[in-house]
């Protein structure tokens, strides 16, 4: 099984196309949410993601931009972009976003894995450090490998014998398409974040995603990827839409 993991595309069509172009062959795609919000191509990105036919866990921006949740939890810039998205979103895409399931999602063909936007206990929780991850690893009844998004930080956490450690990909190059392979160890449990396709915040502007491979024998491998994209075009679309300029400048900084 080769599973492509996408998360936090955030209406960035240029980044989505570049990531899909750079992605290795795979059997299935799972999407960890936040299809829309922040960037300027929500309808085009909904179209593309729907056409993939892959399972999608809803994200907080999907809820707010489709009117399922209010704006009160959002900062000023996020609220501005959510209001703009609400006005431009085609009704069929709004309905589709509203219908997306809350995590955790599971798959019959991968019983050892589950898929969430924030964390297994709270779809809006940011798993940013080992202390939060450690509390999630202590929850009963969850899979050994949990794929999550929401933080826009590629990597994750491993847990064994009561200790939690952070995992981060190491890339040989900050240019072009790059990948970093991580072998999962038997007896360890994992929280794995493929990173954000459309608004990375780990100081690398390239779009992020991951491939999970399992042959059913061991726990498998996770390969983290980065793919450069036409960031100037994504920025121009943001400025043309009269969205806050900060949303354009942050893309090149990867922040
Ligand atoms: Zn997000």
Spell out the blueprint of helices and strands.
Blueprint: E1 2-6, H1 13-22, E2 28-31, H2 42-52, H3 60-65, H4 76-88, H5 91-99, E3 105-107, E4 110-115, H6 130-137, E5 145-147, E6 155-160, E7 163-167, E8 178-183, E9 189-193, E10 207-213, E11 221-227, H7 231-240, H8 245-253
Parallel strand pairs: 1-2, 4-5, 5-9
Antiparallel strand pairs: 1-10, 3-4, 6-7, 6-9, 8-11, 10-11
Biggest β-sheet: strands ordered side by side in the sheet? 3-4-5-9-6-7
Globally, the shape reads: globular
Radius of gyration: 17 Å
CATH topology name: Purple Acid Phosphatase, chain A, domain 2
Unreliable parts: none
- What is the H/E string? EHEHHHHEEHEEEEEEEHH
**Mean pLDDT reading:** 96
In total, the number of strands is 11
* Overall SS class: alpha/beta
- The fraction of residues assigned to DSSP E strands is 15-25%
- Percentage of residues assigned to helices: 25-40%
N- to C-terminal separation?
A: 33 Å
How many separate domains? 1
Bound molecules: zinc ion
Architecture per CATH nomenclature, i.e. the level-2 architecture: 4-Layer Sandwich
Number of helices: 8
**Major sheet characteristics:** 6 strands, mixed
């Amino acid at each position: 099984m080769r599973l492509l993991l996408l998360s936090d595309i955030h209406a960035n069509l240029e980044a989505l196309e570049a990531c899909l172009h750079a992605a290795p062959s795979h059997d299935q795609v799972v999407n960890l949410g936040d299809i829309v919000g922040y960037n300027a191509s929500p309808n085009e990105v909904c179209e593309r993601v729907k056409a993939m036919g892959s399972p999608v866990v809803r994200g907080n921006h999907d809820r707010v931009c489709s009117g399922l949740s209010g704006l009160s939890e959002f900062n000023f810039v996020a609220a501005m972009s959510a209001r703009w998205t609400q006005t431009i979103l085609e009704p069929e895409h709004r309905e589709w976003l509203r219908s997306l399931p809350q995590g955790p999602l599971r798959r019959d063909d991968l019983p050892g894995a589950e898929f969430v936007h924030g964390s297994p206990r709270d779809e809006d929780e940011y798993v940013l450090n080992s202390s939060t991850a450690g509390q999630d690893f202590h929850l009963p009844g969850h899979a050994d490998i949990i794929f999550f998004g929401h933080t826009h930080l590629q990597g994750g956490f491993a847990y064994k014998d009561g200790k939690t450690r952070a995992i981060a990909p190491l890339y040989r190059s900050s240019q072009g398409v790059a990948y970093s392979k991580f072998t999962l160890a038997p007896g360890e449990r994992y929280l794995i974040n493929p990173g954000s396709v459309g608004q990375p915040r780990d100081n690398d502007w390239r779009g992020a995603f991951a491939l999970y491979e399992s042959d059913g024998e061991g726990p498998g491998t996770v390969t983290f990827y980065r793919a450069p994209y036409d960031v100037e075009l994504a920025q121009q679309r943001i400025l043309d839409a009269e969205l806050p300029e900060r949303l354009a400048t942050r893309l090149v900084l990867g922040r």
